[in-house]
Amino acid sequence: MHTKSCLLAFAFLLSSITVFSQREETVLGEHGWGFSGLWGGVSWEYTPYNSVDTYNKRGFFGFEFGRSLHVGWSHFRMIDDIAPVPGEPWRLDYNYNGGFIGYSFLPYKAIHPTLNLEVGQGRVQHSIEGRDKTFTIQPSAGVEINVFRWFRVGLEGGYRFVRNVDYVSLSDQDLSGAFGRATLKFGFSWGRHNKKQDYRQSYEN
Prior knowledge:
single chain; alpha+beta; Porin
C-alpha cells in the first residue's frame, strides 16, 4: 500500500515537471531539451533514525537537459553505524544506490528553486539479525545557488520512504523520516544561457 502511494507520488512529480515544461515552451517561447551539461557532487544529510540523530553522505553524477532537467545516478550511505536504541547491543548500517530526476526552475537566476526525486534499491546491515534488502524513495525540494558557472550550492528538505524492512526490532517507519540536505555540485553547462532578456525577447516575438 505504501509502495503504491510512493509510486503514485513519483508519477505526479513527473507529470508536474511535464506541465511546467510545456508551460515554459508555450508562454515563454521554445526552450529546447537537448543535452546541455554534466554535473556531479556530494551531499550531506541530517536525519533521525528511530529518533537517533545521524548524518548521511551522498555522491551523485548526472546529465543536464535543456539547462533545467537533471537525470542521473546517486549513492547514499550512513557515515557511521548507529545504535538506534540506547543501551542495546545491536548496531545499524544503511545504504542504497539508485537513480534521480531533478528540475531547476529559472536556472539562469543566481538563486532558484529545485525539485528532486531519488529512487533506489539498498540494504540494511543489522549487527544481530543480519542483512536485508530495502526499497527507498526520497522526494525533496529546495533552492540552488549559482556561485560560479562550474560550482553550485544546494539546500533541500524532504522525506525518506523506506520499504521492505523485515526485522523483529526494526520496521519501515524506523528508517523512514524527514531529512535536511546540503549539496556541493560541480560541472559545466554549455549552449545558450537562459537569461532573463532571452525570455523577454522570445515572449515579445
